Amino acid sequence: MDNAIDKPRTMINPPDGLTLIYIPGGEFVMGHLQFGIERPPHRVRLSPYWLGHTEVTNAAYRTFTRETGYAASQYDQDDGFNADDQPVVGVDYADAAAYCKWAGGRLPTEAEWEFAARGSDERLYPWGDEPPRPDRAVYGKLRSDTATTQPVGSKPGDCSPFGLLDMAGNVLEWCADWAGPYPIDGGVTIDPQGPEQGTSRIMRGGCYRHHAITLRAPQRLYTLPNQKRNYAGFRLAKDAD
């Protein structure tokens, strides 16, 4: 694809020590025809930004709570979900937004999330159009009694055109947008922010519990912002200078 990066530009975010990857911005077709919630496909143009190489980890989130006195995550004492290198889960939208503010950034918009996951060639998954496999992404463990998240980056095949990991599986990720239908005017939307108000927020990406079809990069999930689930986390975004 035109904007694939062989060696991504990275930075270490000082407050939490996590790696961010530079996303150069560009134009792409957002959405898909397969499901109504993803229609209509429409053109979006984005400015450059930074996005977390992986989801925010428990170790990083604990640094945030120690320094601010903010409440621990819902699963901080659960041995199945609280390893330092697992993605933090059991955080609602406000928790995720508070962390991002402390870390000097913000949650990504869903347009930024989708572009980072699939680039500009309209691929279905971060790695391309091939269906998911268990050796490529963390998913499909709904019926397992021991189902849990995996350490971030444990499936290097779940890699986007820009080098971001875990955008198809492991945990769902909060985005900044209120949930709502896509525009239908047919023009190019520049740096969309989503509706001005709403009752649900957008989550993106698949997770360890869900089936393969939910790993598609254009998939959208409307979620009440106060929900704290053991399959929901987030990644940090920052504006580029």
UniProtKB/TrEMBL annotation:
Record carries keyword Kinase: yes
Alphabetized GO MF terms: formylglycine-generating oxidase activity; protein serine/threonine kinase activity
InterPro entries, A to Z: CTDL_fold, Sulfatase_Mod_Factor_Kinase, SUMF_dom, SUMF_sf
UniProt keyword annotations, A-Z: Kinase, Transferase
Keyword Calcium: no
Enzyme nomenclature, EC number: 2.7.11.1
A Pfam family that the UniProt record links to this protein: FGE-sulfatase
Leading EC class: transferase
Sulfatase-modifying factor enzyme-like domain boundaries: 20-238
Superkingdom of origin organism: Bacteria
Name of the featured protein: Serine/threonine-protein kinase pkn1
Highest classification ranks of the organism: Bacteria, Pseudomonadati, Planctomycetota, Planctomycetia, Pirellulales
